[in-house]
Amino acid sequence: MVANPETKTKKRLHLTVNRIQLNGTIIKASFPKIDELQARGRAQEAFHAQAEGVARERFGNEVFVRGVVEVSNYCRENCHYCGMRRDNRDLTRYRAQVDQLAELLVHHCPSSVRELDIQAGEDPVVVRRVVLPLIRILREETSLGITLCLGSLSWDLYRQLREAGAETYILKFEIGDPELYAEMESPGTHRERIEHIEHLASEGWNVSSGFIVGLPGENERKMMANFELAQELPLAGCSVSPFVPGETTPLARAPMGNIDLTLNSMAALRVMRPDWLIPCVSALNIVEPDGGYERGLRAGANLVTINLTPSEVRGEYLLYKRDRFLMTEETILKSLGRAGLKPAEQSVAEALSGSWSGSC
Asked: Which of 16, 63, 6 is nearest to 351 (CA)?
C-alpha cells in the first residue's frame, strides 16, 4: 500500500518535533531549495555567508577538534565507492594493537584535540579485541570525548561499547535514495541502516550520520532524498562528502563529485539545522586542493579532524586513494586561523550533553 503523502509529511514533522524536544531546544528547520544547492557566484557567496552566520551565532568562533585513529581496514561490506570493500584483493589488511594505540592516544595526543574518533571498516573482530579495551583505557586515563565509526553492529555490541564509555556514534546513511543505495551495494539494506540509526538514538547515543554527493546515477530527485532522510532521522550531526572515485573500486573511472554542490549541501544542512555538528571533511582537499577545505569552514562547518593513525598502516586505510591528504594539527590550526576560527575548549560529548559554554 502506498503511504498517503500527507501522512508521510506529518510523520516527518512529528519526528522533527520529537528530536527537538529530546535535545531540549527549539529549532526552526529550513528545508533546502534546489536553487540554493545549485547556486554559483554571488548567490553562492550569500548563501555560504548565511550558513556561516548561523554557525557563528550558535557556536561562536569555536570549532570542535577531533582526532581520528583508524584501527582496522577489514570490512565485510562491498560498497562500490569504498576502497576497503571486501572484494579488494590488493589491500594489505591490518588490525591495530591496543597497547600501541593507548600509548599514542593517552600520552601523545595533540593538545588541541578534545574528542577521539575510533574508526574502522565493518569488522566486529576489531571491535571486541581492540576497540572495547581501548575505550576502557581512554575513559580511565583521559577526559577525552569518545566517538565511534564502526559500521552496523549487533545490538549487543552497541550496548557493550556504550557501557564501556563511548558517547557518540557515526553511522552514515550514505545515500538517501533506496534504489541507488542498493545499486551501490551499500551496507545491508537501506531500511536496516535507518533502523540501526534509530536504535542507537533510542539507546542514548548521540548519533551523527552523513551522505555522499555526486555518486554516479544521482539525479536531482535522489540528491534531495538525502536532505529528506537527514531531516527525518534523530541526529546530532550530519556530514557531506564529495564522491571521490576510489582507484581500486568499480567506480574508479567515474567523474569526481562537484565541489560547489558539496559546499552548498553543507551550507544547506547548517541553515536547516543550526544545532548540528557538520564536519569539514578532508575529501574537500582532494576535490579542490587549493582552498576547498577552507571554503567548507566558511560554509557552516563546525568540526575538524586530525589524523592520528600510526604511519605504518595509514596508507592501507583506503577510502579513496593511497595518496591521501592528511590533516595534521599544524594544517588544521592554520586553516582555522585563516577562517577566523579557533579550537573549542570542550569536547563534542560535553557540547551535546548540554554543558556547552562556547563563545556564542
From this structure: 63
